[in-house]
Amino acid sequence: MKRAMLVKSKGSGSDRPSSLSAVRPFFRFGLALLVLMGGGASQGGSEELRGPAFYPPEENTLLVSAEWVAQTIQHPKEAGDLDLLVTLDQHFYAPGEILIRRFAKQEGLSVNVQKGTCGTTAGMLAGKQADIGSFCCPPASSDRLPGLEFHTVGIVANALIVHPDNPIVNVTRSEAEAIFTGEIKKWNQLSDPGVRSLTHNIHPTTRLHCKIRPGHWRTLLDNEDYFSPLIHNTSTMLDMMDVVAADPLAIGWVARWVMEEPGNLGKVRALSLDGVQPDDIAALSQGRYPYYKVLNLTSWKGAPDNPKADRLIDYLLENTHRIDVKNHIADHKRLREGGWRFSGDEVIGEPVP
């Protein structure tokens, strides 16, 4: 196997200890402060390093005016004359658009479907420009606008990925944490027998998006400062795929469905985590696979309420069985069966062990 070049950190990081064992007491102290401030790690995994999977739904940090609360939805002028404007996060865009187009034709409605990110959705909702938005993460307290309700479509696994030529098959959860903190530096330090002869350095690759929201990568390591200074941080999922596909020593993660996209098939390979595959929907539904994205839709109650939007939300939740299996979504019905905690339509907690 050809040895790839080590990726250098753009930050200084020169005074940071190279072993996490030297700084664990500082993590414990920092997390203790978070607990005192109302944060703290959720149950499961490494309590020192794992972040919250969800924030309590009653948390709300926003102060808005009565005028804002009474304001109706005003679509951007460039969108034209519409019945509904929907902004979908990239993780739900492909399956969501198909269902929305089907609903619009069935109901005879004009629906504009825009592709964006959690940030795009948050901005359009705050400006009251969208009837429905979607997120790939559980909401931050700042996302819980007055009158806004969340509806969980389902979850999709974040798969740990490597180059197809890398012989590794499985990592443990503690090994995954140690790889990205830098405590484990070489492939042959892992328990998988396939890499015992692989003495090269590991090249951890990340995508630290949506930092204000719980879940997603924060269930691996809660804070970006916990990651090794040698990580290669990418800005998009496709960048992550390309980096790992080009480097036999790299490891990263993407939502499992991304690996099925045209042009991505065979570029990377997913690892099992403690023996559980990221495409094992039963395990994901039962809370036995710890890294995942939460696909949430939003609707309005009160002044901005639109009965057409409510009907579309109902249609999307009722028709999750029509979503192609290649999207690897454990839908809300499976999550309820698996013991996940819900408030209304929104999943707000993992199954209790």
Which tags fit this structure?
ten-stranded mixed beta sheet; alpha/beta; 353 residues; disordered N terminus; 25% helix
Task: Set down the secondary structure blueprint.
Elements: H1 24-36, H2 66-70, E1 84-89, H3 90-107, E2 111-116, H4 118-126, E3 132-135, E4 148-162, E5 170-171, H5 173-181, E6 203-206, E7 232-233, H6 237-246, E8 250-255, E9 269-270, E10 272-273, H7 281-285, E11 292-300, H8 307-318, E12 329-331, H9 332-337, E13 341-343, E14 346-349
Parallel strand pairs: 1-2, 1-3, 5-10, 6-7, 6-8
Antiparallel strand pairs: 3-11, 4-8, 4-9, 4-11, 4-12, 13-14
Question: How is this structure best described in words?
Answer:
The structure is a single chain. By secondary structure, the chain is α/β, with parallel strands linked by helices. 25% of the residues lie in helices and 19% in strands. The chain contains 9 helices and 14 strands. The protein has helices spanning 24-36, 66-70, 90-107, 118-126, 173-181, 237-246, 281-285, 307-318, 332-337; strands at 84-89, 111-116, 132-135, 148-162, 170-171, 203-206, 232-233, 250-255, 269-270, 272-273, 292-300, 329-331, 341-343, 346-349. The strands form 3 sheets. Strands 1, 2, 3, 4, 6, 7, 8, 9, 11 and 12 form a 10-stranded mixed beta sheet that branches. Strands 5-10 form a two-stranded parallel sheet. A two-stranded antiparallel ribbon has the order 13-14. Strand 1, helix 3 and strand 2 (111-116) form a beta-alpha-beta unit. The radius of gyration is 21 Å and the shape is elongated. 41% of the residues are buried. Residues 1-45 have low confidence and may be disordered.
